[in-house]
Amino acid sequence: MDATRQRFLMCRPTYFAVDYAINPWMDPTAPVDVDLAVRQWERLREVYLDLGHTVEEIAPVPGLPDMVFAANGGTVIDGRAMAVQFRDPQRADEAPAYRAWFEAAGFEMYDPKHVNEGEGDVLLAGDHLLAGTGFRTAHASHAQLQEVFGYPVITMQLVDPRFYHLDTALTVLDERTVAYLPEAFSPGSQAVLRRLFPDAVHATLADAEVLGLNAVSDGRHVVLPEQATGLAATLRDRGYQTIGVDLSELRKAGGGPKCCTLRLRQGKANR
Ligand code: ARG
Predict the structure, then answer these.
(1) Which of 46, 166, 175, 258 is 20–30 Å from 124 (CA)?
(2) Residues near ligand 1 (Cβ within 6 A)
(3) Residue 2 binned pLDDT confidence (cut-offs 50, 70, 90)
């Protein structure tokens, strides 16, 4: 399996907190250790650098505690960046901050017409765009994604509120394969996934409950929460190299490694 060098955008969790609840993981009464969150995030960043990836950083904004979850800042494919529109007002101001970053970085900009939470719900798998809906990203935005990026969009219906973004229920391992939690999807979406990815890895609820599917693969190395031991073993059996990271503090907001990481895809040659 070949690893491809990737370019990522990340946001340091300087102002991380859990002071509202917009998913079932978030408990504003539970304590959060921001310094530990920063150290865990720095470790994730170092793992990427050690793998040979490039990490760019967007400046965190005070008062936007979820801005660390860069995957929700946009969708960037073939040099085009589609900005986001959050469902919840608490996150609304993240959208222009990320948009400004993409514009300054020279991406061709597209603005969302409907609720769209970026790579949290939009995953490029080979030549298909898998697009989640049910909790955050509006179904109507899937048509716009197809127009903007020119990849066939496959709607994925999410049914379990704990797995509110597509990237909490499914991870792309390489051009051909994904891993996912079947019961996080509607029966019809499960049938589509079986059809598109007959060799997919089926994760267990135990692994998904530690956000094990919120993983980042370069086609060979898979970075995932270290608590997802069963999934890691299965992936190693399949020939992937797994790297466990501990993001326990960020998980209190419902996020893992993939949520903290936005893939910047330059152009066809360097997807
Ligand atoms: N607290 C954030 C929210 O509920 C977590 C976002 C996690 N990001 C992701 N790509 N799944 O919006």
Answers:
(1) 46
(2) 22-23, 26, 66, 69, 71-72, 91, 120, 165, 167-168, 253-255, 259
(3) confident
Q: Does the pTM of the predicted model rise above 0.90?
A: yes
Ligand 1 atom closest to 165 (CA) = 11
Is the distance from CB of 46 to CB of 234 less than 8 angstroms? no
| Short-list 241, 194, 197, CA closest to 216 | 241
Q: How far is the CA of 141 from the centre of ligand 1 (A)?
A: 18
The confidence score (pLDDT) of residue 268 equals 55
Using a CB cutoff of 8 Å and minimum separation of 24, what contacts does 135-143 make? Answer: 135/23, 135/87, 135/161, 135/164, 135/165, 136/86, 136/87, 136/164, 136/165, 137/166, 138/114, 140/113, 140/114, 141/112, 141/113, 141/114, 141/115, 141/116
Amino acid present at 78 = D
Out of 19-28, 191-200, 252-261, 262-271, least confident range:
262-271
Active site residue 114: no
Ramachandran category for residue 266: left, alpha or beta (phi over 0 → left; psi -120 to 50 → alpha): alpha
Average pLDDT, integer, range 70-99: 98
Average pLDDT value for residue range 211-219: 98
Q: Is 259 a known active-site residue?
A: yes
Atom 7 in ligand 1: which residue has the minimum CA distance?
255
Q: What tokens does 37 get? A: 């969150």
Which atom of ligand 1 is nearest the CA belonging to 117? 10
Question: Is the pLDDT reported for residue 68 higher than 50?
Answer: yes
Tell me the CA–centroid distance for residue 250 and ligand 1, in Å.
Answer: 10
Dihedral angle at the C-alpha atoms of 84, 162, 180, 271, nearest 10 degrees? 20
